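== Item description ==
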Amino acid sequence: MLSTGALRAHLLAARLAGPVATTREESLRSYRLFAAGDPRVLLGLEPERRWGVGELLGLMAAKCGVSADPAHVRGPDVIDPERTVAALEAFAVRLGVAAGARSPVLFGTGHPHRLLPFYAALARALSAAGCVVLTPAQGVHVDMATRFGVRPHRIDYVRGVALVRESGARGAASATGAHSHSPLPVRVALGALAAAGGPLPELVVGDHGWVCGAGQLGVEAIGLGDTDDPALFVGEAEGRVVVTVPLDDGVHSDYYGPLIRHVLHRAGLSGRQEWP
């Protein structure tokens, strides 16, 4: 496991925290859309009250470390590595609780090309600890909005982690799965479990709509959120998301490797074999 200082240094060197690739323009646009109730950035969350852009900026400054200055409108956005380290600790604690209780767990990602190895390692460790890693609605088709209009997708699982693939997609998009913000897949997955009368997840782990969609339905959820993902942090502030870890969710997948080892160690799962 990395020391706290080494973890912080890695976060900065890999640009998981500190100045990140997500731009201030992208973040502010997301805050404006969230304040306007745009479902593309609500990620399945139904806020308990109206959040103005200024309130969102203040929340993201507190949770992520972005600048609270509304006059700061350009350049790379910033994540405070201290906040990332603290949130990773809380994330690991919740995983440890799931492992100790042998809870059924559901993993899902809208960033399969970047984050699949991270979640797959956690899924493997929890499975080795006696948790049931759920894989409901395998192959079920879901019509999802994209920038090209509504397109059919199907739910798939890779190493215990749910993702969606666009029907008919070829090449890299078919191999890795689609980038998605939609909460529809988790709603379908949870609905399939309920219909089958099987165990429901006691924890959902992921990002984007997998976390917010599950939290909105009353299932405990933890996940990763970038500076342009205000829904996860609002969900945490309103009590429907348990933990959101602020970091850049789009860097090379190898850079999340040290985080895997750190989280598994802090969760008491470091002796569990990771997925090959």
Summary: The beta strands are 18-23, 76-79, 105-108, 141-146, 149-158, 161-166, 203-207, 221-225, 243-246.
